[in-house]
Design a protein that fits this description.
The chain has 8 helices and 27 strands. By secondary structure, the chain is of the alpha+beta class. A hairpin with a 5-residue loop joins β7 (125-134) and β8. α5 (216-228) packs antiparallel against α6 and α7 (352-363) runs antiparallel to α8 (426-439). It is flat.
Amino acid sequence: MTPRRLIPYLVIFLILAGAYAGLRWRQEQQVARDEQAKKVFHLKEADLSDLSLVRGKDEVRLVKKDQVWRLTAPLNARADQTIVDSMLTTLARLQKERDLGEEKDLKPFGLDKPALVVKFTAQGQPHQLAVGAKVPGDQNYYVLRDQDPRLLTISTGSKDSLDRQLLALRDKTLLAFIIGEVKGLRVKSRTTAVALEKAGPQTWSWVGRPDFRVRGDRAEKLLRDLHIARARNFLEPPPKNLAALDLVPDRQTEITVATPAGDQTLWLGAKKDDAVYARLGTGGPVVLADAALADEVAKTLASLEDRRLWSGAIPAVHQVVWGPPGKTWTARKDQDAWKITGPDQKATQQPAARLELALWNFQKLESDQILPPGGAPKGPPAFVLELLDQEGKPLLHLSEVGVVGQGALKILSRAGDKTVLALIPQALFRQWQEEMRRLTASAEPAGPSGEKGESGKGGKP
């Protein structure tokens, strides 16, 4: 078919495409008009400046100030911004399920004395939504909008989103801080006083104890737990006898997070079932929080000391040497794999993730006891481990230098200019050695060219 004969077909195609696009546009416009017609209120979330929930004689009132919502009645407190935002979204997108027309007698619909009236101001104009009874056999509620006499229904989900109790509306944050801005963390209890200072990413030091190695990851986890901690309930009115709750000096646990904006302090007191009494600083409200928070604080304080055999960065390791002296294996990093060579010219190759998982498991090994440096035997070690960087500089040299009883090993380790003699659990170290052995289980003697045969590449035990 010549190009000239295709022109009529092209014209027909363009006409049909234009008609289809026009039809789609009209359909979309009609859907938008229908959606707009179903809206109960024509407003945006940002238009609202106050919001009240009236239940009979009781009223909960919220006001937006400096883009932050606060409760002003029946108490003055910061509101839960997420909950309030969801209510604003519901109001802005609220749709009527049905329009039942005008009704003179509102009593059958529960609207003569509505159980809930939502009042709000949007762009200076007052509005309200009166919520009545549930529609029989339906998942909707009867409502009246402003002064409009027409009876509408809205979905149960919309009603539930607006029908919030005071506890749900209160901000339940225990400590308000930005994790990245934290400069220090202090914890003081009847038995412990800890003062930590952040020295860098994941790096913490104990103020006044320069020789104490702090587990930065555990300090960071505690910080995250404090950041997400929330109150479960508020004790109203505040109890007068705080001593009975252990919320007095010398009996409480005092947690202080230091930030450039100032210190945030939380007191933890006695436990009650699965909760713990807490107070948001001096003069703050008394609340009940999860007892797990107090348990996590105690657990972290008891395990703050970094007793790992090595705590360096795994990505910095480019060469690993391990095994009995004279029979060691050497793994060298090569992009996404590690090439491993060993005794009798055996060789194999493993994915990077597999050997690095073994290094990660090695990092979890902790010493049970630090021994005096002079306690190491003079004989040859039973096992050695060396970690080197890309330039061949040592990151760690470790030697197994003795067995103590049935359950402990003497390990001599050197990282930088620090040498440590320690006791570690024998079973855990042997388990890690077995993991390293499995990395070499598929090794075969190298061929004439010095490269491992095809049958052994990336083999699995």
